[in-house]
Amino acid sequence: MRRALAAAALALLLAGPAAAQEAGRIRVIGRASTALPPDEVTVTIAVERRGPSAAAALDQNSEAARRLIDLAKEFGAEVSTSAVTLQPLTRPAREPGGTVRDAPDGYLAVNAVQIRLAEPGRLGDLMRRTVDGGADRINGVSFGLRDPARAEDEARAAAVADAVRQAETLARAASLRLGRIVAIVSPPRSDAPVPLGRAFAAKARGPAVPIEAGTVEVSAAVEVTWTIAP
């Protein structure tokens, strides 16, 4: 047993420097980002109608919503309903004794649709036309990319190239040689995930609403680890 332990200890001593060298690592975090012009825009537009009864309010609202949807489709937009509400309204009424109570005051119907337009440059005209057609609220304008996965892949590839550049610089400065890559992690374990940045911005009867799409920034980060070559 003593001879076996001594032999094992001798083997560890002889392998010590080589093992330490093999265990050496160079780990870097590569980053990249790119700004792209958006190729789609989404906006939520709503119509509101009041009526003396629930049915009257809902019918009037449905007619206005149908016109809104038809107009959006004329622009080639994708339309999806985001909210439909119907609620009673009240108004303050004073009693003969001077007290104030809530008296019924009809009903309010709301229909909101999300419009996705593949031509951001036409958004201003669309918004103006919908208001002329009876729209009451516009909100949630956001610009984006129809194929964000492709942009993300390109950003990750550029981040890997940045990691390679950093690792080569470090190895050269330390008079070392890079070995093989042993790990690629995205997002980095020691770094917060890098979110995709998105830029936001908020015909006959009036001018188009001025809209500036700006750019959509796509970012990525990767952690790459190399061994140090002997």
Say how many strands there are.
7
Strand line-up of the largest beta sheet? 3-4-2-5
Query: Tell me about the biggest sheet?
Result: 4 strands, antiparallel
Residue stretches low in confidence (pLDDT < 50, at least 5 long) are 1-22, 191-205
Shape: elongated
In CATH terms, the superfamily of the largest domain is Protein of unknown function (DUF541), domain 2
Radius of gyration, in Å, reads 32 Å
How many DSSP helices?
Answer: 4
CATH topology of the largest domain: Alpha-Beta Plaits
What does the average pLDDT come to? 83
Query: What is the domain total for the residues?
Result: 2
Alpha-carbon distance between the termini? 34 Å
Summing up helix and strand content along with how strands pair, one would put the structural category as: alpha+beta
Q: In CATH's first tier, which class of the largest domain applies?
A: Alpha Beta
- CATH architecture annotation name of the largest domain: 2-Layer Sandwich
Question: H/E order of the elements?
Answer: HEEHEEHEHEE
Helix content: 25-40%
Percentage of β-strand residues: 35-45%
